[in-house]
From TrEMBL:
Keywords: ATP-binding, Cell membrane, Membrane, Nucleotide-binding, Transport. This is ABC transporter ATP-binding protein. One of its GO terms (cellular component) is plasma membrane. SMART domains: AAA. GO terms for biological process: peptide transport. The lineage of its organism: Bacteria, Bacillati, Bacillota, Bacilli, Bacillales. SUPFAM superfamilies: P-loop containing nucleoside triphosphate hydrolases (SSF52540).
Amino acid sequence: SETILEVKGLKTSFFTDDGEVPAVDGINFSVNEGEILGIVGESGCGKSVTSLSIMGLLPSPPGKIVGGQILYKGEDISHAKESRMRKLRGNDIAMIFQEPMTSLNPVFTIGEQLTEAIRLHNHLPKKELESRAEELLKMVGLPRARELLKEYPHELSGGMRQRVMIAIAMSCDPKVLIADEPTTALDVTIQAQILDLMAKLNRETHTAIILITHDLGVVAQVCKRVVVMYAGKVVEEGDVRDIFNHPSHPYTEGLIRSIPDLYSKKEKLYTIKGSVPKPGSIKQGCLFAPRCDYVMDKCWTNAPELVGDSHKSRCFLHQEQA
Ligand code: SF4
Ligand code: MG
């Protein structure tokens, strides 16, 4: 299938009193029409900055795209005008966020907010707006749609609110949906339902989805391909199954071990020691070295490249074996 979105050497920095801080440092990935691509990594690895860069929603200043390209259907939108981005956001690329941060307005009913979203790209008479809103609510698995339209956000559960947000995002019939930690605030059962819903919408509408999460378990449930980000760089990329069976970067290995296991009796979850370095704070060598169980002498001085074809990784260990 065809590439719909391509991120090429994207560099996004924040300009602070300490100078230029690179939050995303030359990443590459592409999304095919109709696929679900996972982007995984701990918070602070540059995932959200990547999605905000794509959407043209980077807080600017201090944020700025300083290099590379973002190609949507071949058009470089990395420096597109706000008017162009607004058009793309209304018709082509939609986004949903973590539930409590989603922007349902507490003073308007679900119906008012949903019909307003539809009206932005569809000039329909009032009656048709309402039936389209009902249709969308049904599409996202919300029963008794007619009553729901009259309710306010606080009358709904977190999972239902996230379904409404998905309905709003899907109202423009987007080609790409960026979902940034869409299930993080929800409990495990609801999380699985929302992921099922996204997989269903992807099958039915062929909308490509970029699923951004810190939880590789979430990726495993719905994605075929995954990009692992660490400290602003891609450290591993490939087919989800390959990556689970043969992780080729110690960071990915750590993320796999950190997946919450519903059936395990273990009290405490595995966590990777240490924390993500501040962007720009490590000046040489492998950015993962301070946290790596396999660190070698050269890792402190030399920076590994991302190497491989369908399964790529950025680690000397796996490059020596290859
Ligand atoms: Fe660990 Fe070295 Fe591989 Fe970096 S290059 S992940 S420090 S083994
Ligand atoms: Mg984030």
